[in-house]
Amino acid sequence: MKRKMKFIFGAVSAACAVAGIAIATPSLGVLYNMILATGTVNQDVHAHSHVALPGSEEGFMAQVETQGAANFIVQDVIFAPGGTTGWHKHPGVLLLSLTADSGSINWYDANCVKHVYNAGDSWTEGTTLHDVVNTSSSNAHFVVTYIVAKGVNKRTDEPAPDCAAALGLT
Question: Which of 38, 43, 125, 152 is least enclosed, having the fewest CB within 10 Å?
């Protein structure tokens, strides 16, 4: 009886693992992927700055705040033409830049709305579902800084939303 239960448990576990792989959309076309730096802040982060700018009454203001300890991770990643990040989410905030030698990319949100970013562009991402596709004929080269909760993976692969199939983004 024990042997039969172990077999059933093993079969169910394997089926769940295969189903999880089948519905998630992993990255494809990654040519280079290097974590350049990682660090941990073991307390809340409250960093604020305000800089006066000539000709501006408002100046420039920036802030970073966390509740709880955080990991800061800096990644350098290159996707080949046709490469994709796959549909995924992040458990925090990202600061991204496409390097000067990069091709343009299409960034899709959970409603499959496309945003185009070009070499030299920077943007932020939060916890929403998204996919990035390199539709150019050049490599797409990103430098990414993650600010995520301490001890949490920086990325979670997710199933593609329903709208993705019509655009070939599955």
Answer: 43
Q: Residues 121, 165: contact at Cβ < 8 Å?
A: no
Sort 135 into a burial class: Cβ within 10 Å, 0-12 / 13-18 / 19+.
Answer: middle
| Contact predicate 79/134, CB 8 Å | yes
Q: Please write the tens of the pLDDT for every residue from 116-154.
A: 999 999 999 999 999 999 999 999 999 999 999 999 999
> Any idea what DSSP says for residue 101?
T
Q: What is the CATH number of the domain that holds 104?
A: 2.60.120.10
Number of domains the chain is built from = 1
Residue 1 lies in a domain: no
User: Does this model's pTM top 0.85?
Assistant: no
